[in-house]
Write a structure and sequence with these properties.
Length: about 400
């Protein structure tokens, strides 16, 4: 085993650490970090901890938790600060301070999600402006208390460096078939369609207030939806067309769909919104399936009614399980993404549940929250398994 102090890494971007380490050793099976020291080993070993089952048959190359970091640029300063903080937390909890570091990688980001600031920063750093950076860390099993301490540290660090993160016990892989089920309003598109309809119908403020309360989990979703739709009685269908024609896609959506289809994944919408808009997205972008509520329209006019049962939180979760069953997809290959309280059951039923620009209640309860990315962030998260599978040499 070769030991190197972190000062050697402080002047090199993490994405280039693989080249740096290749200068130190020709045989690298595993790289770990512990309290200021990088350890390079020609053999993989299990990171021990007091919570692990000593009789476990786990593959010795895999940790018990994975921490995925994704950002436009991951600087040495940001990563080293985090490694030091997390290692100290483990030592304080009387666990091994060793953290596995997997080979970093790039992930694609869409042009529309690149800010002017990132363009200038990436030019200076040498990073391609259409690529972000990802690092996966392997951690011992975390107790509930330590998991919370990690989350607190990561949340503060994430805000300081504008980097998103995910802690998970499994990593869905693009090398195997999978499914992503998405909410529609404020997830695949940047608006709440019912609020936009209401504005044009002259009841915008009234409906928007109810929508906000429903998305925060303060109201029964089905009841609130029917009451909002009732305010749209006698609204002409042309208003729906006007809203559909102007739907702003969430940045990264087209990249995400293309990435998933290339990997033989299914991608679908399950929405508490309306089929009128979901089917337009399916026709335009190629979603494999869409599930939403149907507005009753008679003679070109909304009646103020919803036809049939409501697509609510439980229906969304059931839809995810049904899609996995129909397409013979393993449970660990299921992903869900949404932003409102009516997405929580769906997010919790997926192997990877991701909140995007979410309401406070969803931020608190979701397994993963994207705050500094749009949908290209999910593309990055789905690259994590590739990092774990990669070799340093």
């Amino acid at each position: 085993m070769t030991q190197l102090t972190e000062t050697l890494f402080s002047n090199t971007s993490p994405i280039a650490w693989q080249q740096l380490l290749s200068l130190q050793s020709t045989q690298i099976k595993q790289v770990t970090y512990c309290q200021g020291q990088f350890n390079i080993s020609a053999q993989a070993r299990l990171i021990s901890d007091s919570y692990a089952d000593s009789d476990s048959d786990s593959d010795s190359e895999h940790a018990h938790h994975y921490l995925t970091l994704i950002g436009r640029t991951l600087t040495a300063d940001a990563v080293l600060n985090l490694l030091s903080a997390l290692s100290q937390l483990q030592v304080s909890a009387q666990l091994s301070g060793d953290i596995i570091i997997y080979p970093p990688a790039h992930y694609p980001i869409s042009d529309e999600s690149i800010s002017d600031k990132f363009l200038s920063d990436s030019t200076l750093s040498g990073t391609a402006p259409n690529q972000g950076e990802i690092i996966v860390l392997g951690l011992p099993t975390l107790s509930d208390e330590l998991h919370q301490q990690f989350d607190n540290t990561l949340s503060s660090w994430s805000n300081d460096y504008h980097i998103d993160y995910a802690i998970s016990q499994t990593l869905p892989s693009l090398n195997e078939p999978g499914v992503v089920l998405m909410d529609m309003d404020s997830t695949t598109i940047q608006i709440e369609c019912i609020d936009e309809i209401a504005k044009l119908a002259g009841v915008g403020e009234q409906v928007a207030a109810v929508t906000a309360r429903a998305m925060n989990g303060e109201l029964d979703f089905a009841e609130s939806l029917r009451s909002r739709v009732a305010t749209l009685t006698n609204c002409p269908e042309t208003v729906l067309t006007q809203v559909a024609d102007a739907m702003p896609l969430m940045p990264g959506l087209e990249l995400l769909i293309a990435t998933l289809h290339q990997a033989n994944w299914k991608v679908a919408i399950a929405s508490g919104g309306f089929t009128y808009f979901a089917k337009r997205l399916q026709d335009d972008l190629g979603f494999d399936a869409v599930y939403a509520n149907e507005l009753e329209i008679i003679d070109g006019t909304l009646t103020g009614n919803v036809i049939g049962s409501i697509v609510d939180a439980q229906v969304k979760a059931d839809t995810l399980q049904a899609l996995a069953l129909v397409h013979n997809i393993a449970p660990q290959q299921t992903v869900a993404i949404g932003d409102g309280a009516n997405d929580l059951i769906m997010l919790k039923s997926a192997a990877l549940g991701v909140a995007i620009h979410a309401k406070p209640i969803v931020q608190q309860q979701a397994q993963v929250a994207l705050n500094h990315h749009d949908l290209e962030g999910l593309v990055g998260l789905l690259q994590a398994a590739t990092c774990v599978e990669a070799s340093w040499t």
